[in-house]
Amino acid sequence: MEFIKNKLAEVLPAVREKRTTLLKDKGEVQIAGVTVEQVIGGMRGIPSVLCDTSSVSADEGLRIRNIPIMELTDQTPEEIFFLLVTGSKPNDAERAQLKTLFSAHAEVPEYVINVLKTMHKDSHPMAMLSTALLAMEHESAFRQAYENGAGKEKLWEATLEDSIMLLSRITGIAAAIYRLKFKDGVLIQPDPNADWSTNFANMLGISNDAAWMELVRLYLVLHSDHEGGNVSAMTGLTVGSALSDVFYAVSAGLNGLAGPLHGLANQEVLHFILEVQQHFNGVPSDEALTQYCWDRLNSGRVIPGYGHGVLRVTDPRFTAFHKFADDHNLTNDSISIVKAMFRIVPGVLTEQGKAKSPWPNVDSISGSLLYDFGMTEFSFYTVMFGVSRAMGICSQILFHRMVGSAITRPKSLTLDQLVAAANK
Ligand code: HAX
After folding, report:
1. Å from CA of 308 to ligand 1 middle
2. Does 363 qualify as catalytic in the annotation?
3. I want to staple 212 with a disulfide (CB 3.0 to 4.6 A). Which of 95, 207, 307, 424 is the partner?
4. Across the beta sheet with 54-57, what order do the strands follow?
5. pTM of this prediction?
6. Structural domains of the chain, ranges and CATH numbers in brackets
7. Of the residues 245, 315, 363, 372, which is catalytic?
């Protein structure tokens, strides 16, 4: 762990200096106004969250530390985590140490497995994941450091320790959820010589195929972070801003990810695709699928996997998964329906004229790839997303601990106050 701490200690003075100078010299500068529509509409577009780990633009999509995600698709998740927290890619020595670090903390304690075993059989896998993280809270190095009187300047170190522990274990926890809920309940232990995502792919016990290992690696890379304003990151950040440790914060963030308008959309997409497949007894013609989508829209339902709060182009993470499907010649019905949707849905949503973006987001394809490799239990798909997103939430909280951010506290208005403000 010392090598990451040393790296962070190296970059820390410049980051703190930049923030402090900005606050001191330009603290009064107004960068945006707020409309009534934004207050009513989920704070959409109000630039109010500081996030250094990644950014999302309307016309390009995700950049991690200013590197377009399409240039990072060959990385391992550990490398992405290092990039998220330090701002640079690891060198060879750091890469080797990262692998050792993650495998050294990979074992999931028995009490956590017992918590999972005692949960109701109908518990959603996301509820199980969130609960398992909370159950580990008593092990928090951050809580210990805080109780022992560690100063504000030093709190990031324990946050890093907690993050490494949480991330090292989360794959084993997720795999345990999968095997307890959907398989024979026999857990597969991590291999100390394998890297983080290979271990995860192995512990799920679905396939030993190299392409499956590759898919899990890519999955963990693509979902890792998506700036600070989305529901899961912002929830994690808000909880973390109260100096709750990352076990509380990531657990809370994952509860937001579990909503169908956010991470659960990947589960919804698979429902939709299988519904289409059953309805048409295979892959429909584009004309038939178009009508099917219109019927769904006309019944007041959204087309899952399309649209976005920020993006106004095809999500590059969709493009990366699409390329994976092409590179591996995946041609089964669910992938074919995903591709047919990509041909017709943007036109349908444009014609309907409501969605600000008619383009696919990452969730419109991710589940079909998992399905193709034999992970057919789609209530598990958001757990795959959550394992990856935990990296982003942890690294964003770590950043805020490094610079000593304030507790989050925006101002709320009553409807009458908003009416009065609008009529001034
Ligand atoms: N199908 C049908 N209608 C859609 C739509 C879609 N895919 N996307 C947006 N719209 C509608 C909205 O429901 C809204 O309608 P109302 O005015 O009647 O409320 C209107 O278009 C304007 O919405 P918007 O401004 O374009 O979109 P928002 O920023 O409000 O919401 C969502 C963004 C992603 C939630 C939205 O596009 C949606 O519901 N998409 C389908 C669900 C989905 O794919 N979610 C995953 C998003 C990616 C993500 O976070 N993954 O974790």
Report:
1. 6
2. yes
3. 207
4. 54-57, 61-64, 67-68
5. 0.95
6. 265-372 (1.10.230.10)
7. 363
